[in-house]
Amino acid sequence: MTDLVLTEHHDGGVALLRLNRPPMNPLSIALLGALRDAAVVVAQDGAVKAVVVAGSDKALAAGADIHELQDQPGARAAAAAFRAAFDAVAAIPRPVIAAIRGYALGGGFELALTCDLRVGADTSRVGQPEILLGVIPGAGGTQRLARLIGPARAKELIWSGRQVRADEAHALGILDRVVPADEVEDNALRWAAHLGAGAVVAMGVAKRLIDDGLGRRLDDGLDMEADAFVEVFGTDDAHVGVASFLEHGPGKAKFSGR
User: Which residues pair with 165 in a beta bridge?
Assistant: First the structure.
C-alpha cells in the first residue's frame, strides 16, 4: 500500500510532510492516522528545525472522505481522527508552514489553519463548504478560523460555504503569502529554512505561549510569558545570542537549535 503521508527531508533541517492520496487527498481516517504518526516523529526529531505541510498540485486536501461520514458513528470516528492528527501537527515545537497549491477545503482548510503560516498559489481556493452538506466544520474551522480572522468573517465563510480566492484570502489574513503555483513549495521551503536557521527553541516556546494564551485571561498569559522568558535563558541559543550581541551587535548569532 502506498504511504499516505510521505516525509521528505530538505536542506536547512526542513521536514516536508506530503499528503499522498492524489489528486485531491481526501482525508480518510487512515490518512489522518498517518499524519498524526508523521507529526509525532518530526516533533521528536531534534534535527528538524521547521516543517512544511503540502499536498498535490491539485489540492492540499479537498476535505474529509465523505464515504466515512454518512452517519453519527462515522462522524464521531472521523472527528476523533481529525482531532488526534491536527493536535499532533499543532504540537510540533517548530515553525510549521502550509503550502497550498489548488484547493484547501473543509478538513484541508482546517489542516492549513492548524499550521502556523500559510503560503498559497495565486490560483488556490480555500473554504469551509460543510454547510452545503447540511453540517458544520468538525476539525477546528469554527475555532481556529474565528481566532484568525474574527467571528463575523468566520461566520460568513462558514454560513455561505463559499470558496475564497487567493487574493481575498490574503486580504483576510488567511494566506500569509501568495505566489505563482509553481513556486509555492519552493517558497515555503525557503521560508521554513530561513526560520529554521534562527533560535527555534525560543520560537517553539513563543508558539506555545501564543497558542495557549489565546484561551486564557491576560494576567494568566503574562504570568506564563514571564516564566517562559526566564526558562529560555537556560538554552544554548540564548547563551550564544546574548554573547554574540555583546561582541558583534544584533543579527550576527549562529544558533544551534538547542
Answer: 125
In a domain, 258, yes or no: no
Domain assignment of residue 220, given as a range: 200-248
- Annotated active-site residue 55? The verdict is no
Residues 217 and 109 in one domain: no
For residues 185 and 239, state if they share a domain. no
Smallest CA-to-CA distance from 53 within 125, 118, 128, 150 is with 118
Whether 94 maps to a domain, the answer reads yes
**pLDDT tens column, 145-178:** 999 999 999 999 999 999 999 999 999 999 999 9
Residues 49 and 64 reside in one and the same domain: yes
CB of 109 within 8 A of CB of 138?
A: no
The answer, yes or no, to whether residue 244 has pLDDT greater than 90, is no
Q: Are residues 241 and 132 in the same domain?
A: no
**110 included as an active-site residue:** yes
At 68-98, the pLDDT tens digits run 988 999 999 999 999 999 999 999 999 999 9
Closest CA to 13 of 46, 55, 53, 58: 46
Q: Is 13 a catalytic residue?
A: no
Catalytic residue among 63, 102, 107, 140: 107
Residue type, 252: K
Cell of 250: 544584533
Question: What's this model's pTM, rounded to 2 decimal places?
Answer: 0.95
What's 223's domain CATH number? 1.10.12.10
Cα–Cα distances (Å) from 258 to 48, 197, 246, 255, in that order, read 12, 12, 20, 8
Among 34, 110, 120, 169, the active-site one is: 110
